[in-house]
Amino acid sequence: MDYDPAIYELDSEHRALPDGLEGSGIYIQGHNRSDDLFMYLKRRIEGLEPSAIYTVSASIDMATNISPAMVGIGGSPGESVYVKVGASTEEPVAVTGSNNHLRMNIDKGNQSRSGSVMEVIGDVANPEVVGDEYRIKSLASGPGFLSVETDSEGRAWLIVGTDSGFEGLTTLYYDQVSFTLTLAE
User: Fold this and answer.
1) Rounded to an integer, what distance in angstroms lies between the CA atom of residue 79 and that of residue 39?
2) Does the global pTM surpass 0.90?
3) What is the C-alpha separation between 174 and 176, in angstroms, rounded?
4) How many whole angstroms separate alpha carbon 107 and alpha carbon 86?
5) Under 8 Å CB-to-CB from 56, ≥6 apart: which residues?
6) How many Å apart are CA 163 and CA 106, to the nearest integer?
7) Which pairs with CB-CB distance under 8 Å and at least 24 residues apart come from 23-30?
8) 95-130 residue pLDDT tens
9) How many CB atoms lie within 10 A of CB 115?
10) pLDDT tens digits, one per residue of 43-69
11) I want to staple 103 with a disulfide (CB 3.0 to 4.6 A). Which of 13, 57, 97, 147 is the partner?
12) How far is it, in rounded angstroms, from Cα 89 to Cα 181?
């Protein structure tokens, strides 16, 4: 890879939520310099039935400071930053693609389009934001939104992320992320 990682201003950590909000969350930041930045969190779960199909639903509470209908380069800083959730047997990781760009090894879709293992559930625009304050935005999928087949040891990966067409800096906090897996009949 021949690029300068500093230009993407990537940052993430567990920290207190911004002023006006209580508690803490996972802060995530990135500057989209390529018109296609995907920032994500993942977690492997265990103890499920081996080689079984589960339906998956998810809900997210995130702190965002982006109001709707804003104008940005490449797209809106709110409506062009899509929130996705997913589940996969394969661990989600960034790999070097044929064009020497980093790409995900799973089918997450692209920006507003869902993929085979990730679905769009909304965007980061929040109509309750006034000025530059952060407010909580809740998003949820419907029941049985996705499905995943566990591996032979009863494991799967859960993933949540933002797929951005906005060519600017995005900062947000994941306050709560919940997945429900139900054994398919």
Assistant:
1) 16
2) yes
3) 6
4) 10
5) 85, 87, 141, 144, 145, 146, 147, 148, 158, 179, 180, 181
6) 13
7) 23/175, 25/62, 25/63, 25/173, 25/174, 25/175, 25/176, 26/173, 26/174, 27/171, 27/172, 27/173, 28/162, 28/171, 28/172, 28/173, 28/174, 29/169, 29/170, 29/171, 29/172, 30/164, 30/169, 30/170
8) 988 777 788 999 998 888 888 999 999 999 999 998
9) 17
10) 999 999 999 999 999 999 999 999 998
11) 97
12) 14
Residue 9 tokens read as 């201003």
Kindly state the tokens that stand for 78.
């709110």
CA distance 68 to 88: 31
